[in-house]
Amino acid sequence: MTDNSTYPQAETIEQLRQNLATVRARIDQACVQAGRDPQEVRLLPVSKTHPADYLRLAYAAGCRMLGENKVQEAYQKWQELDDLADLEWSVIGHLQTNKAKYVARFASEFHALDSLRLAQTLNQRLELENRTLDVLVQINTSGEESKYGIDPEQAHELIAQLGQFQRLRVRGLMTLALNSPDQEAVRRCFIMLRELRDSLQASAPEGMQLSELSMGMSGDFELAIAEGATIVRIGQAIFGAREQPDSFYWPK
């Protein structure tokens, strides 16, 4: 469980605004140290477990896209906040095919595409909704069985087949790094994703640009930026530590 003193709870618009500014400054500094343009890295605030009323404060603090792990939780919040017309939603967690209809209805992007079957289902649902969706393919770079995502060696075959789905705009790759105090072990996950992306781009279907690398969270995003991240998914450093581990909110 995260030490709550590391990430104190943000309870006001001003506290949220300050936390967003602090994280953005850290992103910018990490970019400078890596010799990168800070404009290359997008901050995605991750709002999982926080209720819709609280997220109105995040919107007032400047958030215009929020990341959610559980699609039904995100869908409910989207409905409750439908008066905020320019608030977009990014679904970043594992998705079962029978819940693809929700993502197709409201999400702007999806970071956890991990099978051809899910791609087919999403494409069919998007056709019904007359929408398109930005997607990233999730890669298991840590080798942990507890993590979702495809094995790196399966990525070439999947990417080659995704060009047939006109409703899916394949933008890049996503990973969850090893949860470890060993920074070099964490860094290797990020290096693997970048190198895999570069390899995939050389053989990707014509017109597919794999420009995005979604990697890095509150505890490791500076390492991710050093290795090429273009999207960092930050929750606790903005909103505060969750009181319970994920398993409390979403039992297996």
Radius of gyration equals 17 Å
The main β sheet shows up as: 6 strands, parallel
The CATH architecture? Alpha-Beta Barrel
Here the CATH topology equals TIM Barrel
Number of contiguous helices = 10
Q: Name the CATH class.
A: Alpha Beta
Shape: globular
**Percentage of β-strand residues:** 5-15%
What is the SS-derived class?
Answer: alpha/beta
- What would you give as the CATH superfamily? Alanine racemase
Spatial order of strands in the largest sheet: 2-3-4-5-6-7
Number of strands: 8
Mean pLDDT equals: 94
- Return residue spans where pLDDT drops below 50 for at least 5 consecutive residues: none
Distance between the termini: 17 Å
Keywords: Pyridoxal phosphate
GO molecular function: pyridoxal phosphate binding
Cofactor: pyridoxal 5'-phosphate
Function: Pyridoxal 5'-phosphate (PLP)-binding protein, which is involved in PLP homeostasis.
Short description:
This protein is α/β, with parallel strands linked by helices and 252 residues long. It contains 10 helices and 8 strands. The mean pLDDT is 94.
Can you characterise this structure?
The chain has a six-stranded parallel beta sheet with strand order 2-3-4-5-6-7. It has one domain (13-242): TIM Barrel (Alpha-Beta Barrel). The mean pLDDT is 94. It is built from ten helices and eight strands. Strand 3 (88-91), helix 4 and strand 4 (109-113) form a beta-alpha-beta unit. The two termini are 17 Å apart. With 252 residues, the protein is an alpha/beta fold. Helices cover 41% and strands 15% of the residues. The protein has helices at residues 13-33, 52-60, 71-80, 100-106, 116-129, 155-162, 183-203, 221-226, 236-239, 246-249; strands spanning 42-45, 65-68, 88-91, 109-113, 133-138, 168-174, 212-214, 231-234.
